Amino acid sequence: MQFSFIIIGNQQDQLPDIVQKLSLFSNYNWIGTFSYSTDIIAKIVQLKPQLVFIFKNDKETDISLKLISEALSYLSFVPYFILISNTQDFALEAIQNGISDYLMDTDTHSLGMSLFKFEKRFSDTVPQTICIKSYSDYHLIKYKDIVYLKADNNTTDFKLYNNKVITAYKTLKYFEHSLPYNFVRIHKSYIVNIHCISRIHFSKNKCYLDFNEQIPFSDTYRESLEQVLNDNLMS
């Protein structure tokens, strides 16, 4: 199973090292590194990482764990947080605010043990299917079988691998933040499974799928798409 992660911190001397070490774990996809000045909650909502690493070494200048915890309490999906620090001073604060693991050493062995704990907990909770109501029927659809979602006024069409289309009586925005990280909004009317993309022509605003199908792409969503594609499709 593939997992996406982001890193939050201002420790420029440490960030490249942790990214390099995590690259040794092939099922982990790095989708972004952000400083404390970034709107962290907005990035989590936008990118939907399953795992978030936070660097915190200074009580006065570093990020507030309480603010993150309070903001995330309003989301339907909360990622797994691992705090990395060179001191034990923030251990109690981390526990009180829902941080799942605390690392003072980021050697490969310590990281591996922490990731093992994450996978053990996460694999038991992550859904593999979505249930949608269409007319009088309920459909259980595996995420891996969905190619893209298309807005159609106040309904959403799910295009599947088998070319079947199922209409859900919810808006595209309703589904946007409840889908796994590999589903990315690329247009006001489309959310696409990036594993189905064969090519993106940015100058022509076209997204080409594995099935010789084209769907439009908007520059409005270019940044978030590139962040996800960088590690998932370009490596």
Structure commentary:
With 235 residues, the protein is an alpha/beta fold. It has 2 domains: 3-122, Response regulator (Rossmann fold), CATH 3.40.50; 129-232, Beta Barrel (OB fold (Dihydrolipoamide Acetyltransferase, E2P)). It has helices spanning 15-22, 40-47, 65-72, 91-96, 108-122, 172-176, 222-232, and strands at 3-8, 28-34, 51-55, 80-84, 101-103, 129-134, 137-142, 146-152, 155-160, 165-168, 183-187, 190-193, 197-201, 206-209, 214-216. The strands form 4 sheets. A 5-stranded parallel β-sheet has the order 2-1-3-4-5, sandwiched between helices. Strands 10-9-8-12-11 form a 5-stranded antiparallel β-sheet. This is LytTr DNA-binding domain-containing protein. GO terms for molecular function: DNA binding; phosphorelay response regulator activity. InterPro entries: LytR-like (IPR046947), LytTR_DNA-bd_dom (IPR007492).
Major sheet: arrangement of strands: 2-1-3-4-5
* Secondary-structure element series: EHEHEHEHEHEEEEEHEEEEEH
Q: What's the domain count?
A: 2
The CATH superfamily name of the largest domain is Response regulator
Low-confidence stretches: none
The span between the termini is 17 Å
How many extended strands? 15
| CATH topology annotation of the largest domain | Rossmann fold
| Reported CATH architecture of the largest domain | 3-Layer(aba) Sandwich
The major pleated sheet works out as:
5 strands, parallel
Cα-based radius of gyration, to the nearest Å: 19 Å
Provide mean pLDDT, rounded: 85
Strand content: 25-35%
Using the alpha-carbon principal axes, give the shape. Answer: elongated
Indicate the structural class: alpha/beta
Helix content range: 25-40%
What's the CATH first level of the largest domain?
Alpha Beta
Tally of DSSP helical segments: 7
Pfam family, one: LytTR
InterPro entries: LytR-like (IPR046947), LytTR_DNA-bd_dom (IPR007492)
GO molecular function: DNA binding; phosphorelay response regulator activity
Protein name: LytTr DNA-binding domain-containing protein
